[in-house]
Amino acid sequence: MSTLNLKLTELMNWLMKPTGKILLKDDAMPGYAFLAEVQTAPTIEEGWDFCKVTIVFQCYAYRLKRCYDDVWDTFYFNLDAASNLEVTVNGHESILLINTGHNRVRLTVTCSTAMSASVNDHVFALKAGDNVNPYLELMPGENVVNIEGTGKVKFKWTEEVP
Predict the structure, then answer these.
(1) Tens-digit pLDDT profile for the chain (162 aa)?
(2) 2, 60, 130, 139: which sits with the fewest CB atoms below 10 Å from its CB?
(3) Cα torsion through 57, 62, 65, 68, rounded to 10
(4) Alpha-carbon distance 5 to 36, whole Å?
(5) CA of 133: how far to CAs of 33, 105, 127, in Å?
(6) Segment (H or E) for 12
């Protein structure tokens, strides 16, 4: 079997094995990803010195982008908003988190110790480690998160943008 056929087999296995939508990254849009699923079997066109593979994906309507802190190398001033994603809490802290996406998104809060948080009129008990809850979410725009306790807190979310 030729090297080309082996590589095509690897590609087809990678594309066709998962069921449902998977994360698809495109080098043309750094910082963004898509939830995508192969729609039809790929077509292959081979020539003496080339191989062209055409793949049709069905994607979720929104692009996905990670929240940003103030790391300037990856920050795009026209579209991003900087949030303080790591905070040391000593009693009480109010933190402004900005969701620049168009939909509400699930927030992951990682704590060094047990604490409590209030977000958008919901109060949550936070354990040490990662905290994920279907009601622990950020609305589009500005969100104030109030943390009670002592220790370090990290925030993480993925925004949905058109």
Answers:
(1) 588 889 888 888 888 887 788 888 888 888 788 888 888 888 889 888 888 999 898 888 888 887 655 555 566 666 667 777 899 999 999 999 999 889 999 999 999 999 999 998 899 999 999 999 999 999 999 999 999 999 999 999 988 888
(2) 2
(3) 170
(4) 25
(5) 23, 11, 12
(6) helix 3-16
What does DSSP assign to residue 126?
E
Position 130 scores a pLDDT of 96
Look at the block and give the residue holding tokens 């809490």. Answer: 89
Residues in the chain: 162
**With 0-12 CB in 10 A as exposed, 13-18 as middle and 19+ as buried, what is 71?**
exposed
**Residue bearing tokens 């449902």:** 20
Model-level pTM? Answer: 0.71
Which tokens go with 99? 């969701």
> Tokens in use for 64?
């996905």
Report how far apart, in Å, the C-alpha atoms of 46 and of each of 42, 60, 144 are.
13, 31, 56
Give 25-79 as a DSSP string: E-TTSTTEEEEEEE-SPPEEEE-SS-EEEE--EEE-SSEEEE---S-GGG--TTT
